[in-house]
Design goal:
single chain, 6-stranded mixed β-sheet, alpha+beta, conserved putative lor/sdh protein from methanococcus maripaludis s2 fold
């Protein structure tokens, strides 16, 4: 019973009412803490419902490390194979074309008839001139006979001196008329012959400018004939490539259509002034022993000797040229450029470069690259400067072999 009484006593101590002053203090404290508790609760709600965002992973880009070619930079420029002489072929008289014997690309020989005009009017002119000549010839023969008779009679004193002089005058007039008629006949015959367009040199027809049934004027081009024989390579060079270039300088020529073949050429003609629009100088080089496989119109790459461009290579780096895939080429404004992958964090930088040669699948960079640098090969139009990327090797490396 004692234990129970003591337990009840202890319980009574905890159940005694809180004094009024304490209750008022607790109420004030709760009122002050309530806004702070609510603010903390609101601040914690977003953290409870959303995880922090992860940083985006770098974009993968196809790239490669570049190394210079095994040779020093060469001054190489594009060109075109052309015939040394090319002339337009035209009729020397007016008329209507009634026949064409050759077409574009045909090979012709000297004296070959290429086209004809309707000769009807010129045949009539020639016939008329022939008739006039025949009449003048008869008058000349009669005047000659009359002169012979009067000369004999004058010697026998059978006619007067004045009559002989009249006969001599008639003879001189008949002679002049005969000569004039003869020249008119020759002119009419020439005009009839000019109704045939004849090749004056061996060569190849490179253009057709008129068709059958068309009326043409004298001198109007009908064909373009490229003469057989000497073959030139024509190239337009920039200002920094012609300073030390002279007539007779040697050059090496390669043709993309004939891989593995090299041709020697020499500068034959150098333009005296720059083209007013392109600001380039036209240079003509004659190929030595071109061969039948070299066709007119082929594209060519002209590699000028180092001494021909002087400090030619002054505008190029001494580290060599880099042959890289053409897919890597980008443009910074009007200038060619490449995307360079820099540093350990692989940040992209757009850098301008100098390109000396453009081929079907590759380009040759002579300034702006260093050995061992990494460049972007694909997707150059989808990246931006300062972007972090993840370099990956090409899936098919043979597609980017230079």
């Amino acid at each position: 019973m004692r234990n129970q009484s003591s337990g009840f006593a202890e319980s009574a101590q905890f159940t005694q009412p809180v004094p009024r002053a304490c209750r008022r203090g607790l109420s004030r404290l709760a009122g002050r803490l309530a806004p702070l508790i609510a603010l903390c609760a609101l601040a914690g709600l977003p953290a409870c419902g959303k995880k922090p965002e992860a940083a985006p992973s770098p974009r993968p880009v196809v790239s490669m490390i570049v190394h210079p070619d095994g040779h020093g930079p060469s001054a190489t420029w594009p060109g075109t194979v052309q015939a040394r002489y090319a002339t337009p072929l035209s009729f020397r008289v007016n008329g209507k074309i009634v026949e064409r014997s050759v077409r574009l690309g045909d090979t012709v020989k000297p004296g070959q008839v290429l086209a004809r005009l309707d000769p009807a009017d010129y045949d009539k002119n020639a016939a008329s001139a022939q008739a006039q000549y025949d009449a003048a010839q008869h008058r000349y023969v009669f005047a000659k006979q009359q002169l012979d008779r009067d000369t004999a009679q004058a010697q026998a004193n059978l006619i007067s001196r004045a009559q002989l002089e009249q006969t001599q005058d008639a003879y001189a007039s008949a002679t002049a008329q005969r000569d004039q008629a003869k020249q008119q006949l020759a002119l009419a015959q020439d005009q009839r012959r000019y109704t045939q367009l004849v090749a004056n040199h061996a060569g190849v027809i490179t253009a057709e400018n008129a068709d059958t049934g068309q009326n043409v004027q004298a001198g109007q081009p009908v064909y373009q004939l490229a003469w057989a024989g000497d073959v030139d390579v024509v190239s337009d060079l920039p200002e920094n490539a012609i300073g030390a270039l002279h007539i007779g300088d040697a050059a090496q020529v390669t043709l993309p259509a004939l891989p593995g073949r090299h041709y020697t050429a020499r500068v034959r003609e150098l333009a005296a002034a720059a083209d007013p629009q392109s600001r380039t100088w036209r240079v003509k080089l004659t190929l030595e022993q071109p061969g039948a496989e070299v066709r007119l119109g082929m594209t060519a790459n002209v590699a000028l000797a180092a001494n021909a461009t002087g400090a030619a290579s002054a505008g190029q780096t001494a580290g060599g040229a880099f042959t890289i895939p053409a897919t890597a080429l980008f443009h910074d404004g009007d200038a060619p450029a490449l995307w360079i992958v820099q540093g350990a964090d692989h940040v992209l930088q757009l850098r301008r470069v100098s390109v000396s040669r453009y081929d079907a699948r590759t380009i040759t960079v002579t300034q702006g690259l260093k050995d061992g640098e990494r460049i972007v090969l694909q997707g150059v139009h989808t990246v931006t400067s300062g972007e972090k990327v993840r370099p990956v090797a090409p899936l098919h490396p043979e597609d980017f072999a230079s």
